[in-house]
Design brief:
By secondary structure, the protein is an alpha+beta fold. It is built from 3 helices and 3 strands, in the order H-H-E-E-E-H. The chain has one domain. The longest helix has 12 residues.
Length: 97
């Protein structure tokens, strides 16, 4: 089960323990994105196999390989997703006046 409010009440030590590398971030996104089941964004098929990377899902009908980052703000990211998670964690923890 995925906690959608992952940063609520989390300090930097807990954050760093939860997200040690890019794989931890991608696994989290994968669990969150497909928590209600997989459905291909191209053909609508609900059956999949593992794609080119461990967290990717490949449609068994049209063979589209979908990353957990597709359709998120992390899509086409030019740097480490772990760095992006740290940026979001930092911004989320700010007290705005």
């Amino acid at each position: 089960m995925v906690d959608e409010n992952i940063f609520g009440g989390v300090n930097s030590i807990k954050f760093n323990q939860r997200f040690k590398d890019d794989n931890d971030c991608l696994n989290y996104l994968s669990d969150l994105k497909w928590s209600d089941g997989y459905k291909c964004i191209r053909c609508g098929n609900d059956k999949f196999c593992i794609g080119n990377k461990t967290q990717n899902r490949r449609c068994t009908k049209c063979r589209y390989d979908e990353s957990p980052t597709v359709g998120t703000l992390f899509e086409k990211l030019k740097f480490s997703i772990l760095i992006a998670f740290h940026i979001i964690f930092g911004v989320n923890g700010q007290k705005w006046v």
